[in-house]
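Hello forum,

I keep getting stuck at the same step: I have a sequence, I want structure tokens, and every attempt I make locally crashes halfway through. Rather than fight my setup again tonight, could one of you with a working pipeline run this one for me? It's a single chain of 500 residues.
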Amino acid sequence: MNRPEREAFPDSTTAGPHPGVEPPSDRPIGLPALLCIALLARLPAVLFAKGYQFLDQQFQYIDPAWHLATGDAFERTHEWTMGLRSWVYPGLLAGLFRIERSLGVHDPETQLVLARLLQAFLSFIPVTASWLLLTHWRPVPRARTVLLAFSCFYLSVLCGNQPNGATFAALFSVSAVLLFHGPGFRWPFLSGLCLGLAFCGRPQDALLGPVLAAAGLLAGRRAATLALCLGSIPGILLQGFTDLATWGAFLHSPFAYLKFNLFDGRNAGWGREPLWYYPALVLLALLILPPFVRIGLRQLLHGARILPLCFAAALAYLALHSIPAHKAARFVEPALLLLYLCAFLGFFHDRNPTSILSRLHARVLFAAHLVAYLLVSFWAPARGPTEAAAMLGSRADFENHLVLVDGSRINVGGWFYLRRKRLAVHPVPRERWPEAVRPLLDENAAKGLPLYLFVRKRPLDPRRAPPSIRMEEVGRFTDPFDLKRRHRVWLYRLRTRRRG
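Reply #2:
Ran it on my machine without issues. Output:
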């Protein structure tokens, strides 16, 4: 007879409660009800969270996807000239854009609403995995409250809303960690499938694979580890053959990305953050700050004892991402999601309602998450550039050239909004725009077209334009609260002034 496997973690594959934890005191929420509530929590973001989560989302994901779907021009940044990005995720998004166009949906904002809705449905995968974990594989007290908090808090809504490779990968990598707790062969296999898809969205998320495999081997779960490895193969092959078809080498993009950022150290050009950046980020995100340090740490460690694999995977993810010089919160979203799950377990299971400090901590935590939830639900970053680009894209007389004052080609608001098969963007300094536009203005004038200026930060004075140029302001665009100068845009239409 085959020797039975030891469990990965105490009670990780059984229906009994965790040792030392009281039996559940409330009835667990059903999965359909949980998914409905999660969808309702995401609907404000789906409908109103316009713009991009970060600038790279525009030219690394949305614009290339639109190019695949339509053949329109897009700005080929170094990621798309050196092969640092895979076409897998833009290809999936391009498929959605093509379906939308076939259904008669052509408005850019409506198309992005549907893209965000698809992302919301993808976020049901980690929600479902967390429900299986906390109600079947490792039942805990107050599972209903923990699941509702994890499914509806701000970071879960953000990753289930913004369509980009990083959030796509975060949803699947977190699902992989949660599903690996499942018994038998099927759930670890599905964990591997999720891990492979996460690898396609963001190669760094494959770092969780060795962590899960090591945990499985240490626990004697050899069949589960084998299932994880087999499940990850389709994603690896999808990434590899896509790179072979587009970049000419199997798995070209992850290795090129690793060389560019780690061995060449090129990512240091975007900033050098200290080694303590991610620990400080975690403490801030979990509100483990004075005077709540002792309470917050106790709750986090309480949850870590219940879900040690989630905690270990998050720490390993943070440690490996601390090696490159450039660091950012969006790089470690999977780790933050896993740590939040541990923290919620501790918060709802280890809270002392009679302590004044504990009650204050609960109120501060609730207020902070409410504010963050409202922020990501009505997200509107870089609305100035995107609305200016959308206006240009809708104008029939906008063709051939766009002159960009005080910016680079990635500041034009998105080629997804500009929507032109061919377009040359000309960045020029503010003091040189009159002489820079003359040959372009003459070329467009010969075709009966005006020339448009896309001016950032502060306006130009039409009265100071050269006498030969007629300059007309056609729009001014800012963010909702107009707080950032770089998101202020003025559009001008130029024509050659007729003599006589």
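The radius of gyration is 25 Å. If your local run keeps crashing, start a new thread with the error log.
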